[in-house]
Amino acid sequence: MKKDGIAKNTMVLVIMTLILGVILGSVHYVTEKPIAAQEKKQHDEALIAVMPDDQKDAEFETVDLAKDGTDQKIKDAIAAEGLTAESIDEMNIAKDSSGKEEAYVFTVTTTEGYGGTIQFVLGVDTEGAITGISFLSISETAGLGMRWAQEPYISRFDGKKGDKLTLVKTTTDKEDEVEAISGSTVTSNAITNGVNAALAAYKVYTEGGAAK
Amino acid sequence: MAGKLQVSSSPHIRSKVTTSKIMMAVVVALLPAAVYGVWLNGGHAAAVLILSVLSAVLTELIYEKIVGRPVTISDGSAVVTGLLLGMNMPPQIPFWIPIIGSVFAILVVKQFFGGLGQNFMNPALGARCFLMLSFAGHMTNFDVSGYAAKHIVDTVSGATPLAAVKAGETADLASMFFGNIKGTIGETSALMILIGGIFLIAAGIISWRIPVIYLATFSVFALIFGGHGFDLYYLACELCGGGIMLGAFFMATDYVTRPITVKGQYIYGVLLGVMTGIFRIFGGSAEGTSYAIIFSNLLVPLIERSTIPAGFGIVKEKKKGGEAA
Amino acid sequence: MSLTPNSPGERIYNGIVKENPTFVTMIGMCPTLAVTTSVINGIGMGLTTMVVLVLSNVLISLLRKIIPDSLRMPCYIGVIASFVTVVELLLEAYLPSLNDALGLYIPLIVVNCIIMGRAEAFAGKNPVIPSLFDGLGMGLGFTVGLVCLGAVRELFGSGTILGFQIMPKAYEPINIFILAPGAFFVLAILIAIIQKVNNTKAEKAAIEAQKQRRQILQAAGLVAAAEKA
After folding, report:
1. Pairwise CB contact (< 8 Å): A31 & C93
2. Domain ranges across chain B
3. pTM, whole model, 2 decimals?
4. ipTM of the complex
5. Residue B114 has what DSSP assignment?
6. pLDDT one-digit tens code per residue, C161-176
7. Rounded distance, CA B146 to CA B148, Å?
8. d(Cα B165, Cα B184) in Å, to the nearest integer?
9. Of A20, A27, A28, which is closest to C78 when you measure between CB atoms?
């Protein structure tokens, strides 16, 4: 017979939580390092994805944007372009094995996607040309806006260059024009605005930018 | 004994109207818009309409044979569903899409729930939304054939004039009214749809209530919230563009899925107008009619329940302590 | 097939066939509908749930004499939630791709009716070994359900199974199967098919039984009764 006294119940709960606590604590201890390693791996994989094929072995160094008020300068530059929904989360410098800087990789968030926030990584090489784009989080309409995350649309930004890219409706060779995906104007706009925000940040960093 | 009296149970007075006659009238009313759509877009569009109707009828025939129910294709409702679905397709759509749509409309939306009279949602619109979700790319591709490009006015940069109006451009009202614009096969010509709609009202097949209240509520909503103030030109463009005319006269008035009660129909019309307004103005795409109608269809049982008219001779109980006599 | 009640074999048969959570008792529908966009996701979710089921069934069964009746709920939830957290940490550390695919449906395993249901209905009242196999059986049954659903949805919605292109290249994937409405459609049709099969079996069994009753009565000479049977 199980007696229902308060004392007995409390004892049982204490014992239960002790047992469960021990189980949870030990699993957490064992998995802490592997989890941190996985997170770093996923972070770096997202950055590598935008590097050109011959630079896939680059190492990344995260830039401390708070230094010298660079992050405020970037915010001002983005606002000056009239972009209100875009922001730079992180900036990394890609260096090859000898330490030479090859590209600047920006993690961009834009909140004006059709299905909400889009977060992507954009690589810009030392001449200001885009090396590639890869999406961290995108939930647009399947078959329409989501196509940006697949070939051949995801390569539309490769090689584009300029202070600001404009969306056009037809195939174009111009360096500062990008062909939109018809039927997904909102998504195309959001992504292009994000890219332009990254380009503005690139300008801030390389011109006024951080002291080396 | 001469003059025997016949004994039978009610009904004793029968009207000449049958389901197939009503459906025939609806088909006739749809013809102006359908013929115009075919004239504008060419042979492919005609084939789309024919295939939709054929698939709808065949699906109903085959299903009813397989499950052993009486075959009801002669009542014409499958024909109407097929035709309406076909008219909701973009002109260059690959043939297999409307065929799949018709099968879905008749099989899933209509037959699985019990056949004519038991469907809880307009089958043509249910299928259209199914196709929108399944084949978004094809369903939003309003490119026209070479033949059609000669008549079509394409001065706007949006996929359709309605999309352009949403983006803030001005569209050409005259072409939106007469119909030589980009859009689905049956929805482009407001004029042709109006002709069909007025015919149906005059013939007593549908009542003016739902279309008029729907369009009126939508107009009020668009004027207040559309962002263009009291610009009547903008309002006229919104009314002539997209599927709202087709929806108001031919889909919202479907006997099975609209409320039976008169008060209910007023509520239904207002609900439709508000929802279409919300979807069109605040939603992501320029078109909102299909979803507005199917959502309202879902609410119809609730509307009917709350608007049951008082039975003849029944007096509502006065509340205690309320008004005297 | 007659198995000893509560034997390991019987528990497994029960979980996969007789009381299959997806098609028969229809519990745990939320992850079923949400996660079956592909076969591999279905397998992942099914096996993850199975692991949690087995662990929680075993612990609850071990503690069943200690947990007072009035404290059932908090104790069961505590156990289930802890094991789900354990599984989540392990997935994050060693199988991150599965973790990403299942996303927030992993923490939702805590409130999966199947686990709570089995804890209440079985593990709280039965010894450890049957409880273990009950968890295994139900988990496998759930996985079977998820795989069936996932296979149909992935085949029609992406043209692939387990990532291998099965449909011809010309096949255009029907997107709706990967979305929520598609899940409902496929589930409804699968359940309809299974019910039809079960009903036909039941009808045949009833006709057999009637035949046998008539034969027995006729053999005993009770012809009139035989006609009525």
Report:
1. yes
2. 19-306
3. 0.78
4. 0.77
5. T
6. 887 888 888 888 888 8
7. 5
8. 17
9. A20
